[in-house]
Write a structure and sequence with these properties.
The chain is mostly helical and 111 residues long. The protein contains 3 helices and 2 strands. It has a two-stranded antiparallel ribbon with strand order 1-2. A hairpin with a 2-residue loop joins strand 1 and strand 2. It is globular, with a radius of gyration of 18 Å.
Length: 111
């Protein structure tokens, strides 16, 4: 019976200077590295634009932006009837969520 290396099922990655160990099958490493690059880039953009150093807020906002882009891409290709999905409402809602996140996390930044 061949010996398996449990370390082969993990990948150490770095996002915004923090290291994470992620469960990952060897054949999925390339895709995971691409995802890490996307998340890291987006989090850095959000942090720079918002001047926020609260990792949770930056992560949530980056995730919302990535999800919005993904859903917008799908909406463009999936047209219901003759009307394409309007993404301006989604963008407004994402910005409102960001404002609420700021309100909730602001007291934590004083800790």
């Amino acid at each position: 019976m061949p010996e398996t290396n449990p370390e082969a099922n993990f990948l150490d990655v770095k996002i915004m200077g923090r290291e994470y160990r992620v469960a990952c099958m060897p054949e999925e490493r390339s895709a995971l590295r691409s995802a890490v690059d996307l998340v890291d880039d987006r989090m850095r953009e959000v942090a720079q634009r918002s001047k926020s150093t609260i990792a949770e807020r930056v992560a949530v906002m980056a995730a919302l932006h990535i999800a919005h882009e993904r859903l917008s891409e799908n909406a463009i290709s999936i047209v219901s009837g003759e009307t394409a999905v309007d993404t301006s409402d989604a963008r407004r809602r994402i910005e409102a969520m960001g404002a609420r996140i700021d309100t909730v996390l602001a007291p934590q930044s004083d800790i």
